[in-house]
Design a protein that fits this description.
By secondary structure, the chain is mainly alpha-helical. Helices cover 48% and strands 12% of the residues. Strand 2 and strand 3 form a beta hairpin. The longest helix is centred in the first third of the chain and has 13 residues.
Length: 119
């Protein structure tokens, strides 16, 4: 990840609605949700939701797959992991063992992070 990619992610998540969408998709895991389910869960009008989902997709924070008449959205957890690595790669001047007590690794339940084939 580079600075431009990181700022794109931050800009996309700077909207409260987009942050709520992303967090909801993270919560539901690899099965994702179709747009109507997201709209219902967050009480967001479909036209407003469409705008925000497009922004998240363009920032590569979510992936979308067509399923008949519906589009299923999934959180791109790998991108957020790349962002975390980018933000912390110089932790303690390149000696992360010095700050191990404050830099706890993030753990996800097995199978939560979708592979490229399912994303």
């Amino acid at each position: 990840m580079d600075k431009l990619s990181a700022t794109t992610v931050f800009e996309s998540l700077s909207s409260g609605v987009r942050l709520d969408i992303y967090r909801l998709l993270v919560r539901v895991g690899p099965q994702g949700m179709v747009a109507g389910e997201i709209a219902t869960a967050l009480e967001v009008p479909p036209t407003n939701l469409s705008f925000h989902l497009k922004a998240l997709t363009q920032a590569q924070l979510v992936s979308v797959v067509q399923e008949g008449r519906f589009q299923r959205y999934r959180a791109s957890l790998g991108l957020i992991q790349e962002l975390i690595v980018y933000l912390t790669q110089e932790c303690c001047a390149g000696h992360p063992e010095q700050c191990a007590a404050i830099c706890q690794p993030i753990s996800c339940p097995q199978g939560l992070i979708p592979t490229q084939a399912t994303a």
